Amino acid sequence: MSASGRLAVRLKAVPRAGNEDREREDAVARAPSSFDVAFDRVFRALAVAAAWGSMLLVVVVVYEIARSAAPAIARYGLGFIGEKTWDTNRETFGILPQIFGTLYSSFLGLLLGAVFGVAIAIFLSERFFSSMLDSLLHAIGYGEHPVLGRLPDQLEAALKITIELLAAIPSVVYGLWGIFVVIPMVRPMADWLNSHLGWIPLFSTPLSGPGLLPAALVLAIMVLPTITAISRDALVAVPPKLREAAFGLGATRWEAILAVFVPTAATGIFGSIVLGFGRALGETVALAMLAGNANVVSWSLFSPCTTLAALLANHFPEAGAVEVGALMYAALVLLGITLLVNIAGAFVLQRAEAGLKGLR
Amino acid sequence: MKPRGHFAGVGVGVSEVDVSQLDRSLRQPRTLFSFIMTTATTVMTLCALLPLFSVLYLLVRRGGKELGLATFTDLPPAAMVEGGGFGNAIVGTVLNVGIATLISVPIGILAAIFLAELGSNSRAAGAIRFAAKVLTGLPSILAGVFAFAAVVVTTGGFSAPAGGVALALLMLPTIILTAEEAIKSVPSRMREAAIGMGATPAQVVTRVLVPTAMPGILTGVMLAIARAAGETAPLLFTALFSEFWLSSSSPQFLPKTVGELMRPTPSLAVLIYNFSSSPFENQIELAWAAALVLVVLVLLTNVVGQALSRRSGLR
Question: Do A252 and B31 touch (CB under 8 A)?
């Protein structure tokens, strides 16, 4: 019996439900028809084109923005980066306060977001929540209960989803919330710090409403889910044998976490922080709503500030031709900074993945 | 030998163990440290949840108060005028996101098919994957800047397609990366069975891989849509905003000519952004109501998307 004949017999013997006529027709082996071949060629070509197109998109985005910025680059040169004024009437443009504000607010937001984000990643990856609930249930005697006994796992999953939901809230909603909740909340504290410790540069100005601190707080909330999700993945990927070895040697839970799990996952955690930084640098509307949009370079936490993204958001809709050029230049600078940070982050994470392979 | 640390008794005969040494006592510095750290992380996790609940609580309290049928059917009110709604902004958001979905989903899934199956091990795939990862980090405002330079300037005005292109640029990497994962997670025996039966690569993909991976692909699409619906920055100077319906003839919410499509298009996100800085109480209240609608839309899309992939009983 020929090979194809055997295949057909075998296939016919397979029990099948419903659609019998169609399946029998399919089961008989035949060479691809010319339509099949043509479809295959076209489909593959489309897939290749889409894939290359997606990659070219990065190049096109950079090219398109750079092309639009070219006249402004020619006119203002590198002095653009060091200039402090943005004056449409005199056509004097510079983005020093914006660059400073972008970096400073992102750094502050990241500081807070990273501390909380990594702590929560540990909390989730070590399943603290379900083990706490579990011991609680055992303490009151319901540990093996058929319904209640499953509760810890379900609540743990719910907690993870809830943290992820933080990322789902649109940034414009965070901005709105920041205006009506965060600013009134931090104001008394800011005023007290300013009047009592005003000699410290960090507290040297009063908070007049929008300012760096509320912006950084909201930024921290917005980068936290990114940092938590990627750090958690890195911590979960720590090989079980390392985990077991640490506990086998008698380490307490936190000794194991700090001496073994976190160092093993360090590259991944670092990558998550770099990517979080990228997020923070590019965040726009929440900052445009909360930072105050003043061309100020100040180390004070309570001073209004501005960022590159906020500058674009505020000036673009009503800009004339000359200002659009300058804005494109600013966009190019922002693009350069974020691309660098994101490429670094993606690179670090790739290294982290490769590094863990050796341990497994 | 003096037992040191609370595990020191292990390995000795059970009868010789000082049982009190094995108790977990907070007087041991190591245990105390563990306890403090556990408490600290627990408190920090709870703290991180506070903003979420605060946002949701305020949305329901301040936004829910305004919500009524009129908010869905009326146009935004002028300053100081009572009532009004954001019907046009809801339609505008659907239009912007719809255009973005039409652009990004076919390209994204085709690119994912290339990455996961047709060219999975090629050098190009690595580079494309890296480019997609870098694109995920593209600031949303720069997607707007790109669409401004590429679409608004060439077509000569702010429009829904310009907004759609900006949003599509943000949706694309999410769709590519999640669809790739979904297609890769199809058991290789299914792929091999199809190849073994003589299917062409395109048939393997369209008849076996994509249908099987569909829940995962849809999850990615839904997540991308949820993200796009909430984006403000890319729309600010691409779709801009409009106080009016998309069409002047009935039914008013549907643009019927190309000219009507190429007009500034309102959206919920930009409405919230514009009204949040309004000095007029009624517009601020409307911003809260719009925020409630937007968040419900986004969260629903998110939850449905994640439920899709969790329910698919692959393997």
Answer: yes
